[in-house]
């Protein structure tokens, strides 16, 4: 953890959940979180179709709502896309951008992520920008160079002022049940912190850096105890309220 920084435990529901499922899961998370704020800030990011439903279930409680992507334009002829102002209007406070699944499945490069992050900030959303290397890049010894390049290309100038969040997710660990060693995680988070400080000065030392990639109750505590690990971006385990809350309790 970074001293003086409140950790964030964010759940990425990905493409899961119908209205009944989403409402039930949101209510279970809210009930488990209770009325008071715990050590960690909690965030859930459902599919677009559930933003209103989940927002209503969490309204007035300690759990924030976010989205999983946005378009770079505020409006226009972009069939099938959703803009940052629309997300804000639907109740979102955060938005995940540049997730490896978006980068791989939709060909999103750093420039596209940068434009989306700028749009998110302009709409009053906090961007959660994802970075991470493939297994081949790690084996080749290029992991840090890849992540540094993604940071440089994906973070806008207003990122620190917006309270933006960086999520480091080694691509090869997402959904596989595999995780890097604690030493590898600590080393990458230290490299990210150094880059943020170099870019944003003192503010870069306070930005939250999350770890993601097969985070679950069994491995959360040692990962969250590492220096510069300021929370987690949780995938599959966020779809089970008890598991998500157990990860939050490990802070």
Q: What would you say about this model in short?
A:
It catalyses: D-glyceraldehyde 3-phosphate = dihydroxyacetone phosphate; L-erythrulose 1-phosphate = D-erythrulose 4-phosphate. The chain has 251 residues and is an alpha/beta fold.
As a percent range, the share of strand residues is: 15-25%
Identify the CATH homologous superfamily: Aldolase class I
Text of the CATH class? Alpha Beta
Number of helices: 10
CATH topology: TIM Barrel
Which stretches of 5+ consecutive residues score pLDDT under 50? none
**Overall tally of domains:** 1
Calculate the mean pLDDT score and round it: 95
SSE arrangement, N to C = EHEHEHEHHEHHEHEHEH
Number of strands: 8
CATH architecture identity: Alpha-Beta Barrel
Radius of gyration equals 17 Å
Query: Which strand order spans the largest sheet, edge to edge or round the barrel?
Result: 1-2-3-4-5-6-7-8
Helix content: 40-55%
Function: Involved in the gluconeogenesis. Catalyzes stereospecifically the conversion of dihydroxyacetone phosphate (DHAP) to D-glyceraldehyde-3-phosphate (G3P).
GO biological process, one term: glycolytic process
Keywords: Cytoplasm, Gluconeogenesis, Glycolysis, Isomerase
Pfam families: TIM
Please provide a written account of the structure:
This protein has 251 residues and is an alpha/beta fold. It has a single domain, classed as TIM Barrel, CATH 3.20.20. 40% of the residues lie in helices and 15% in strands. The chain has helices at 19-33, 51-58, 84-89, 100-105, 110-122, 135-139, 143-154, 182-200, 217-224, 241-249, and strands at residues 8-12, 41-45, 63-67, 94-97, 126-131, 165-168, 208-212, 231-234. The protein has an eight-stranded parallel beta barrel, surrounded by seven helices. α7 packs parallel to α8 (182-200). The protein is globular. This is Triosephosphate isomerase. The active site is at 99 (electrophile), 169 (proton acceptor). It catalyses: D-glyceraldehyde 3-phosphate = dihydroxyacetone phosphate; L-erythrulose 1-phosphate = D-erythrulose 4-phosphate.
